[in-house]
From TrEMBL:
One of its GO terms (cellular component) is plasma membrane. This is D-methionine transport system ATP-binding protein. Part of the ABC transporter FtsEX involved in cellular division. Has ATPase activity. The lineage of its organism: Bacteria, Bacillati, Actinomycetota, Actinomycetes, Pseudonocardiales. Keywords: Amino-acid transport, ATP-binding, Cell membrane, Membrane, Nucleotide-binding, Translocase, Transport. One of its GO terms (biological process) is amino acid transport. Transmembrane segments: none annotated. Homodimer. Forms a membrane-associated complex with FtsX. Belongs to the ABC transporter superfamily.
Amino acid sequence: MSIVEFRGVTKTFGTGAQAVTAVDGVDLAIEAGQVFGIIGYSGAGKSTLVRLINALEPVTSGQVLVDGVDLSTLSERELRRVRAGIGMVFQQFNLLRSRTVFGNVAYPLKVAGWDRERRRRRVAELLNFVGIADKAWSYPDQLSGGQKQRVGIARALATNPKILLADEATSALDPGTTAEVLRLLKRVNTELGVTIVVITHEMDVVREIADRVAVLDDGRIVEEGTVYDMFSAPKSATARRFVRTVLRETPEGADLERLRARHGGRLIAARVDDAGRLGAVLSDAVSRHGVRFEIVYGGITTLSGRSFGGLTLELLGEPAGVDALVAELRTTTEIEELAR
Ligand SMILES: Nc1ncnc2c1ncn2[C@@H]1O[C@H](COP(=O)(O)OP(=O)(O)OP(=O)(O)O)[C@@H](O)[C@H]1O
């Protein structure tokens, strides 16, 4: 059973000519223990989707199930219980400025009726986990963005939720701090077993921590799958655009013009992955086909622990030899001609 499931969910705001369909016929299954990314541009409906999961908004049609229970069948009191099992982390942290770090993290425990001693022990444990035990008596204004988000995460985890919703949790942070916060979220997933739904407009965030990803475009899921599959073979135009923001393995525009100006040989872009034998074919290129090559662009990274990337090669030799090499390369990996 999925921990979160959407069945034909539509959410419309307003009526008549003013109606806006923010979520449009979404089917989605998030399994327990996953980090699930939902990526989309501004206005795609991401925040609305999140608000449907924690029942801050009712669906217009369809069903949202949390732990197998259709939220629309629950009373307000039962919904509060479901919400208590879902933590939330926000882009703007949403900390109480008048309370210390300790006070912010203790707040949901107080609301849940924990006594003072239990609260103290739990907050200490949480602050240790997120690495800001030394800031317990500081106020939010005295903290950096990354520290504030650690407090936000500690607060979200206070009552031991099974699900954590992170809505653009790193969008207000610089790249270095983003990486630290993402590592912390990954630990929340692996060490505490919390299922995390990450809402973002940044493909880097998806690449860093998600297991699976859904692409939301104009309220619809246009693509869904493992992060590796989406990066290595994006199917929708929106997914391809997102992937290109992170992986610049194929030169375009001015980069491509510069390469063409500098390199007279035939330019091809080759995909590199775990299965490919690009290196093996290239190392025999001279002896088998009389073709030399130069690596002129690209990069290789890891995705979900697997190699992934692309290299642009300049192939130098007799046209027939180059043709034969390209044909051989095509049998091992994806090749794109960067024609003049
Ligand atoms: N309470 C509301 N009343 C009316 N329209 C709304 C409401 N909430 C969202 N919308 C509309 O629904 C659409 C999706 O908005 P939503 O905030 O879910 O998108 P988003 O992907 O989270 O965008 P952003 O990243 O900019 O927040 C938008 O057109 C928005 O104007």
